[in-house]
Structure formats: structure tokens, C-alpha cells
Design goal:
4-stranded antiparallel beta sheet, 20 helices
């Protein structure tokens, strides 16, 4: 992983913490979690406050993510909102943290001037034993703490106020109302007090989780869909009227689900030509064919001209493998008819010619799922499915690792937003 780290392809764009007072505050949060303080004089953190250096120092990469649920967070500065999340069991942790930091910006700006904010993203379960445990998580609540007890009291008052607004019968709970009055005597009017986080409860919608080898949950108005390996505990066990279970190995059913729920951008000339999407897929397919069949190839020379010459020199092999000619045929069909006919395509290959509908709220998650069916496209894997990419990377030969890193640095790191916009139609 050193090559990835040196190239900022893992743990990149993190925030350096080296000021003694910030390190002291960070250690205060670690102590609150029952963890040993770090003796490091400098380390980096992501949006949640996770630090790969502190993880190594503690010998525990799950120090902010015990059991893979109820994720802990440490906020030293409001600028963490601009950082990525580099270690999490849930794909939506980054978005939940972003929403929390955004909705409570005034309070966080004020609090972090003189204190550290820490706590847990608390959900309905303490430990995940089967799929039903995951499905029971409908919302999460940010349990926010600081060194000042007033914040703890203010956070409690905020939760009760949220409950009062969200539960129609809550106003009948006299004990709760009396508790709110007592807390208000200490905290004041939290609607005006800039030290109080304003919103701490958020919906837990579609996501991927690392539990059970990787599992997707998509939420639609009438049905929740789980996509995973059938060996996951609880698969197809309960609530068939509410939950649909699809095997991650059943390309046809997974594709039909994404298609029927409007999550796919079908292969039409209107976006294929402008994006160069099929050309990109073909390029990735050929590069991986070189890897599998020509281990002595000089990958440092593998530009477009070199790859074209390699294809011509091994035409029989390329045609026999089939992916490159298939994508060329799809490109010709789209240019001729304006679309690609999916009915005649093998289900697994359909994922080569589609992308997530850019305007759909689940676009990133859908592209992540698509990348599971197109593992040879290491650029898409890196952009949307870093967990799978890093696992793939561990199995790469040294020369292929260097080639992948060089390609990502040139094609992606040089203009991340530009590549996402061109290939996938994404604007953020």
C-alpha cells in the first residue's frame, strides 16, 4: 500500500493535525471513548476524525468503528467538512457526517474555537448479527459530547425538541415536557444559542455495508431491496412483502431491478458519444487482457498507440475473449440506431454499456454496484468502490500495481471532477 499512499490514492487529501492544543483535544476525545492517548506529534484525520496514523499507533483500525456500527466521530475543526471519509463500514457515513456538519455549522464553528466535539452516530442496534439487524436501522442520531456539560444537556434538549416535532403524540408526555423545561434553565433558548447543534437525527437510506462480505440496501416507496451473497445470515428469511432479496451473483435480476426502478442510464448515442464511455470500457478491457495473457509486457509504454498495436498483434486472442469486439459493435449500433439493444446481450455484459442515471439520488451507490460486475475497469472501481479496489490491489503483481497507479494519477487525479462529469455525468 506504500505506492498508493505515496501517490495519494489512499488516505489522500486528509488534514494534518500537529498543533499541541489540537492533539490534546483529540486525546481528550480518545479518553472519552476509553482509548489510550496517542503520543504522535503529528497525524492526519478525515471527515469523521479517523486517522490512519493513530490507528497504526493504537493497533486498531476500528478504533472509531467498533463492531461496524454506531460510528464514532471527532471534530476538531469545521474544515473537516471538506475532507473524504477513508475508513467506514457504511457507504453513507460520509453523507451523514456531511449533513450533520452542514446543518449545525454555526454551532460547530463556535464550539471548535475552544473545544473538541466527539460522539457516536447511534443507530438501533449495538451489533449486526444478520440482515434483519441492518434493516432495523431506519434513522441515526448523532450523540454529541464535549468537555463542557452544557453541550451534553443542550444536545439532550435538542433531541427532545426533535421528538416533539416528529412524533404527533409526544406533547402529551408531561415528564418529557418537564425535562425540557429543566434543561432549558441550564442551556437557554437553543434556537438562538449558537453552541447547540440544531439537528441530530437523520434518515438512514440506501447504502452499501462491508458486513457479510459486502451488502447493498436500496429503498423504494413500496419495497426495500437487499443485494448480497445468499450466504449472508438472514437472506430471504423474513418480510417478503416488504423486502426483496437478490443474489449479487444473479446479474440478470440485479440488472432488471436497477432498470425497473429507474436507476440506469440506458446506452443511447445522446450520452455515449459525448462521454467516450464505451471507449473507456474497451480501454480497460484491453489493459486487463494484457495483464492476464502477457505478463512480460512493458506496461510503462502502454499508451493508446501501444495498446492498438498490441490488439492488432493478437487479434485472435482479442476476438476470442470477446469484450473488445463486443464494445466496438455496441458503439457502431449506437451510432447507427441511436441506442444499444440490450435484449440480445448476455446479462453480465449489459453492465459494460450502462451507467447510473446521474440525477438519481442513488447514482453513486448504483455506480458502485455496477462496478462489482465490471471488475476489470479499475478506474470505476477506484472512483466508486474503493473497498473493492484496495482488495483487488492486494492481488496485483508489482508491475501491474505500478501501471494502475500511473494510470489513475494521469486519468483521474489530474482532474477528478472532469472525469466524473465526462464518463458518468456527475456534477458533484
Amino acid at each position: 500500500m506504500n505506492l498508493l499512499r505515496d501517490s495519494e490514492l489512499i488516505y489522500g487529501r486528509l488534514l494534518t493535525v500537529e498543533e499541541p492544543h489540537l492533539i490534546a483535544r483529540y486525546n481528550k476525545a480518545l479518553a472519552a471513548f476509553g482509548l489510550a492517548p496517542t503520543k504522535l506529534e503529528s497525524f492526519e484525520i478525515d471527515r469523521t476524525g479517523f486517522s490512519p496514523q493513530v490507528a497504526e499507533d493504537l493497533g486498531d483500525y476500528g478504533y472509531l468503528d467498533p463492531n461496524g456500527v454506531n460510528r464514532r466521530f471527532i471534530v476538531l475543526t469545521p474544515s473537516q467538512i471538506e475532507l473524504p471519509v477513508v475508513h467506514t463500514a457504511f457507504s453513507n457515513t460520509s453523507q451523514l457526517m456531511y449533513e450533520f456538519l452542514t446543518r449545525n455549522r454555526r454551532a460547530i464553528d463556535a464550539l471548535t474555537i475552544k473545544d473538541v466535539i466527539y460522539g457516536e452516530i447511534e443507530d438501533a442496534v449495538a451489533k449486526v448479527g444478520d440482515i434483519e439487524d441492518l434493516l432495523s436501522i431506519n434513522q441515526v442520531e448523532f450523540k454529541v459530547l464535549s468537555a463542557e456539560d452544557v453541550l451534553g444537556k443542550a444536545a439532550e434538549l435538542g433531541r427532545l425538541a426533535d421528538r416533539l416535532k416528529q412524533e404527533p403524540e409526544a406533547w402529551r408526555d408531561s415528564a418529557m415536557l418537564e425535562k425540557m423545561v429543566e434543561l432549558a434553565k441550564v442551556c437557554g433558548d437553543i434556537r438562538e444559542n449558537a453552541l447547540v447543534p440544531d439537528q441530530v437525527i437523520f434518515r438512514h437510506n440506501a447504502y452499501w455495508t462491508s458486513h457479510f462480505g459486502g451488502l447493498y440496501v436500496f429503498v423504494d416507496p413500496d419495497m426495500t431491496t437487499v443485494i448480497s451473497d445468499p450466504s449472508a445470515p438472514g437472506f430471504r428469511r423474513s418480510r417478503p412483502w416488504q423486502v426483496s432479496y437478490l443474489s449479487i451473483h444473479d446479474a440478470d435480476r440485479v440488472f432488471q431491478f436497477l432498470l425497473s426502478t429507474g436507476r440506469l442510464d440506458l446506452p443511447r448515442e445522446s450520452w455515449l458519444d459525448e462521454s467516450g464511455y464505451l471507449e473507456h470500457r474497451a480501454d480497460m478491457a484491453v489493459r486487463n487482457l494484457v495483464r492476464r495473457t502477457d505478463p512480460d509486457a512493458e506496461l510503462a509504454k502502454a499508451d493508446k498507440v501501444w495498446l492498438q498495436a498490441w490488439i492488432h498483434g493478437r487479434a485472435d486472442l482479442v476476438n476470442r475473449e470477446g469484450t473488445f469486439p463486443f464494445l466496438n459493435a455496441a458503439k457502431r449500433q449506437a451510432a447507427r440506431t441511436g441506442r444499444v439493444d440490450l435484449d440480445e446481450i448476455d446479462p453480465a455484459r449489459r453492465f459494460l454499456v450502462v451507467r447510473a442515471k446521474p440525477e438519481h439520488p442513488d447514482a453513486w451507490l448504483t455506480n458502485m454496484l455496477i462496478s462489482d460486475f465490471v471488475p476489470d475497469d479499475f478506474i470505476s472501481r477506484y472512483v466508486f468502490n474503493k473497498q473493492a479496489f484496495y482488495k483487488d490491489y492486494e492481488s496485483y503483481e508489482p508491475n501491474w500495481r505500478r501501471h494502475v497507479v500511473d494510470t489513475l494519477k494521469t486519468a483521474y487525479l489530474s482532474d477528478k471532477a472532469g472525469l466524473r462529469r465526462k464518463l458518468y455525468g456527475l456534477t458533484d
